[in-house]
Amino acid sequence: MTAPVDVGLDIGGSKILGVAVTADGDVLARERVATALGPDGVARGAAAVVEALRARTGRQVSAPIGVGIPGIVDPRRGTVKHAVNLGLHGEWYPLADLLADRLGVPVVVENDVNAATLGARLVEGVADLVYLGLGTGLAAGVVLDGRLRRGIAGAAGEVGHLPLGGFGVERERCQCGQHGCLELVASGRALERAWPVEEGHAAAAVFAASAAGDARAVAVRDRFAAGVAAGVRVLGLAVDPRLVVLGGGVAQVGEPLLTAVGAALRAQAAESPFLASLDLAARLRLVPPDRPVAALGAARLGRTPR
């Protein structure tokens, strides 16, 4: 009898990506559809991806199906709210129940950064790891001794909302309501403000321009890298992980991002023997571009202690 597959979904504002994965972590199939916004659109698109994966693999789906989604998530109830890029506003949206009704299989739901963290842990094969998501905002996921740390209020890893001085944004208001948050410096949105482009991605544009010797681009890149390094430093001092994995949309820049953040970490440690001894730059990794870590992590949610 052919073994069933684990299925994980990464639901984002532009696409829903699903993977069918064996118990050993091999990806048998992928399916991607454009996201239709709103409660019905999200559920309909997610169900379509699962059905397509069933058809492509010819296998039964293990229960439960895992879903990673942005917004505020209650994993125990399988609900989500304030996923504004998906058209999910206000009240708790019972995504797990709605999908389970459509598919006839139980569903578990997790925040997308936490799902990506579990995927990064699977890819790297270590039990202590931090995933730093450099997307529109800035947030981290933490795995300690093989277990995902969510926190009492689900706020573990929200380093983007740490107000830190030294970047000149102390008077600027963050979307969270505080002033001077790290996310105002070290996020995709921050790069878009500092280096606006008419098409394409600001991160790719500013790193390309800095590589070509544009002095202003170099300054934007180095300020951004210093902000990311500050987040890495906070996480390193808080939980002392074996690895810090950089992911999210900005991480598609690749090795130049790793080089810039590593250089910033070494510069920040230059006058501190204590920081230098931690060698945080050596712990940095990039998400492999061919590994959809959020979907992979979602596929493992049914095997993860809740």
CATH H-level superfamily title of the largest domain: ATPase, nucleotide binding domain
Based on Cα principal axes, name the global outline: globular
In percent terms, what proportion of residues is strand? 15-25%
Mean pLDDT: 92
Largest sheet, order of strands side by side? 3-2-1-4-7
Give the structure's gist in a few sentences.
This protein has helices at residues 39-57, 95-103, 112-124, 188-194, 202-211, 215-239, 255-268, 273-278, 293-299; strands at 6-11, 15-21, 27-34, 65-69, 72-74, 79-81, 107-111, 129-134, 138-144, 147-149, 243-247, 284-286. With 306 residues, it is of the alpha/beta class.
Written account of the structure:
It is a single chain. By secondary structure, the protein is α/β, with parallel strands linked by helices. The chain folds into two domains: 6-105, ATPase, nucleotide binding domain (Nucleotidyltransferase, domain 5); 126-286, ATPase, nucleotide binding domain (Nucleotidyltransferase, domain 5). Helix content is 36%, strand content 20%. It has nine helices and twelve strands. The chain has helices spanning 39-57, 95-103, 112-124, 188-194, 202-211, 215-239, 255-268, 273-278, 293-299, and strands at residues 6-11, 15-21, 27-34, 65-69, 72-74, 79-81, 107-111, 129-134, 138-144, 147-149, 243-247, 284-286. Strand 2 (15-21) and strand 3 form a beta hairpin. Helix 5 packs across helix 6. The chain is globular, with a radius of gyration of 19 Å.
